[in-house]
Amino acid sequence: MQSAIVNWSGGKDSCLALYEARKAGLQIESLMTTLQVQQGDLPNRVSHHEIPESLLDVQAAALGLPIHKVILPDQPTDGEYESIMKDAMEVWSSRGIRDSIFGDIFLEDLKQFREQKLASIGWTAQFPLWKRDTPDMARQFIDLGFRAVVVSVDGQKLGPDFCGRPYDLEFLRDLPDEVDPCGEYGEFHTFVFDGPGFYKSVPWKQGVTYSRTYQWQQKDFIYHYSPAVLDDDPAHLN
Length: 238
What we know:
four-stranded antiparallel sheet; five-stranded parallel sheet; Rossmann fold
């Protein structure tokens, strides 16, 4: 049986890619995620999703999989990023694993970037969701019984009221026509807490909603967040 790792964000696309990879007969050895290093009151967390490390640990355990966490410094240079990721991949290369699964759907430049970087170290990138119809895939995700919550949105595309909502048919109906139903352009991000492959539901609760402005190429971009955090009430952890 072919072994692989899954590049993991905690969101719906990586989760569906894991589901499809398992269905295809791949042996998944581990999830692998990159985390932004702790800053002030913010813990180590998934970029853009703002999912904290503690919640990722519980999510991975609910899926019955280990998770390899790669901690990135604040605003790493391209060279720093490539060096850190190369070291992380060598951990798995030493165990004979050279296949990496991604949840990308149709962004060709991103696919080529991943393929080229992995090929340079003798790895193969796999894309089980590639070129799937996103409206159909969004409905399939819901119909399969996955449960997810929207944890962040691009403020240029969606208002803060879309944060914290279940990723369900009502959410899809409310999306503006120009927003991809899978958020493939980064319009929104999700956290998956239950569904096929989960041994139990992930105990979570909604964090405080807030907004943050970023600058890129001398332009301001605003993102709204309603992060999922671990519900550490002992009654909910069993």
